[in-house]
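User: I'm preparing a small set of examples for a lab meeting where we compare how different chains pack in three dimensions. I only have the primary sequence for this one, and I'd like the structure in C-alpha cell form so I can line it up with the others. Please keep the answer compact; I'll paste it straight into my notes.
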Amino acid sequence: MLDLIRTTSLLDDFFKPTYKSHMNTNITETDEEYKLLIEVPGFKKDEIKISLDEGKLVVEASRKKEEEKKEKNYLHREIYEGTLRRVYNMGNVSIEKMKAKLDNGILEIIIPKEEKKYLEIK
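Assistant: Understood. Below is the C-alpha cell output for the 122-residue chain.
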C-alpha cells in the first residue's frame, strides 16, 4: 500500500487559490429574452469568441501563454493562461439576433426568444 503525504509550506497556505477555473454564469429569463452574465475576469473582448453550433452556445476566452524568460523567477503563479470554454444548450436561437457586451470582467449575452411557430391543422 502506498502512503501519500502532502507537505505544505508557508507559500501553500498564503497563496491558497480563492477562485474557480471556469466561467461562473447567471442566467435570467423574461418573456422576450434570456440573459447570460458570465465571469471572464482579466480577458479583453478580442480574447473572447462566441459561436453557435447546432443549438449550443459556445463561449471561449483565450489568453496566450507568456513566454517564460530566464530572468523571471516565480515563487508562485496563479494568473490563468490558456483557454476557458463553456457550452450552453440553447435550442433554436439565432446568433444574428444576439447581443453581447463586456464590462468589468462580466460578459453579458442577450438572446431573444424565437417566436413559436405552430403547424396549421387542416
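A couple of notes for your slides: The two ends are 73 Å apart (CA to CA). Confidence is low (pLDDT under 50) at residues 1-11.

User: Perfect, thanks.
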